[in-house]
Write a structure and sequence with these properties.
Elements (H helix, E strand, L loop, with lengths): L9 H6 L3 H65 L5 H24 L10 H64 L2 H32 L4 H24 L7 H14 L5 H100 L14 H58 L3 H29 L7 E4 H11 L1 H6 L3 E6 L6 E4 L1 H19 L6 E9 L2 E8 L29 H11 L3 E8 L2 E9 L3
Parallel strand pairs: 2-4
Antiparallel strand pairs: 1-3, 4-5, 5-7, 6-7
Helix pairs in contact: 2-3, 2-8, 3-4, 4-5, 4-7, 4-8, 5-6, 5-7, 6-7, 8-9, 9-10, 11-13, 13-14
Length: about 625
Amino acid sequence: MMDARLPVNTAARDWRLGIGARLVAAFVTIVGLAVGACLVGWLSYERLSGELSRIVEDQMPKLAFASRLSKAGADIGSVTAVLTGAEIRAEYEDIRRTYAARLKALEGLLETNAAPTGSSADLLPLASAIRDNLRQIDLAAGKRFTLMEAMRSDVDELRWVQADLLEEADPLVDDIRFNIETETRKGAGAAALDEQRKSEALLTALSQANLATGLIARLVNATTLDELQEANAFLGDSADELASRLATLETWPDSITVRQLAARILQQSNPATGIPNRKRSEMQEAGELAALATENNRLVGDLGRLIGSEVVAIEKSADAAAARAAAAIETGRALLAAIAVLSVILAVAIGYLYVHRNLLTRIRLLAAAAVAMSEGKPTTQIPAAGPDELGDLAHALMLFRQARDELVQSAKLAALGQMAAGIGHELNQPLAAIKAHIHSGKTLIERGKSEQALVNLGKIRDLTGRMADQISHIRRFARRPQSHSHPVDLTEVVREALSLLEHRFEEEDVDLKLTIEQGNKMEVLAEPIRLEQVAVNLISNALDAVKGLETRTVTVDIRQTGDGASLIVGDTGKGIAPGDLHAVFDPFFTTKPAGSGLGLGLSISYNIVKDFGASISVLETGPDGTRFIVSLKGLE
């Protein structure tokens, strides 16, 4: 038996970087990356929040200002085109009020702009220039509309004068015709001729007055200087002819009213004081108004360009802010993606290279080694010890295997002692009988009773055969079992196990109740030596359970089942405590006093039964005893 122990390097254990420290380091690294990702996200969102705040606090008011400014400029531009095209004062006043209101709105918008910069700083002076231009337009338009209203009034008056002139001339024409006829009948040719001249002069004056009135109306409606000059030239000729005819009629008292009305037409036809003079003044004012309108259009155009420049500048500022916000998002996104990729790489490296390929592989090897040792397999590969907790576990398993081997060796020695006692018991009786038969045979031979001596020799032969069978059974039980299962007679196996323990039933005065259902041969799939070992372990435990009790009974029941057979071993002991039921099949678990057992019997039996593809369990336990059941598979 080996007493050597594997050395333990405690100094190396004090400073080593174990599994816990490595996993903590990996966890801290991953948490650090997560914290870094959160920090990057926080910084990115902080920057984005700042940009959005600047957009809301700075760019949005500017964009709103630009929008209102564009609308105000467009409103003014839409009115400018029709401002100077109004033909009547009421129309002009309506347009002018709209224009002034929109201009005032623009000025109010510019005045409320907190800090005008760039092109917006020139908008307010330009709006003031437009208002000054509007005042000049008001003056020019006022003069023009006054002249136009005066000319319309004069034209209306002339039309009434013309109507009155025709009304006054009709009786005179009739009188002249009557006088001509009268003088002609009298034969006064000279008087008739004089009346004829008055008639011609009156009719010509009427026609020239009508012509002058029409030319004045045409002159009033003239839109160009050429039209004005042409109408004025025709009007001058007509006025001269009218004045000449009126001079002819001065000696005719009845024509005074006609001459007064015609004189009014001549007065309005005067280029210096009449309607032509007003028309020239009106066209001059119209020209001035056109010049002012051109200036107004220029100012409004400049205003539109400045507004456009301001809007573009504000849009560029807003675009720059949006670009900075987008850059903050992209930067944060790129950093988060990089951290995520790094975290994935680190997690995969830790999970695959360290946890999977290192820890799990070693754990599997250690688990396989532990399972193999729990199943009692002699050859177990334990991975090399490393500078971590698994290395400690491997070292502990090595120590455990060494201790197990020593315990198994001790168990073998103990079993050998018990078997030796059984062998002594089984052989002592035949040896004593042989000794007695030899002594008796010698006496019989000496007395010459050879035939009776032969009978004693036959009995000695039978006893030696029985001893040989016992030794052969013990040798067969100690032999290494086979590795594969095959049909085995469960009844025969149980009988042989009982024969090994027969001496204990006699020595300990234990009653055996063996029940074999119908006494049939029951074949199951197993290996005879290991199945006999299971039966021996269960029956031995039953004998141990009733030792020292008043009622000492062990029951062995063999039954046929639907798919095989079952072995039930019971005792009349004190039962298994409820807290110990879960551990009865664990290695080294025992409730026996120290030195009475190693706690390996049930564990070995459990693994043997599992190898057969069968099951073993506690059927029942209590104060009246315990029963174990082994369910074995039959032949298919």
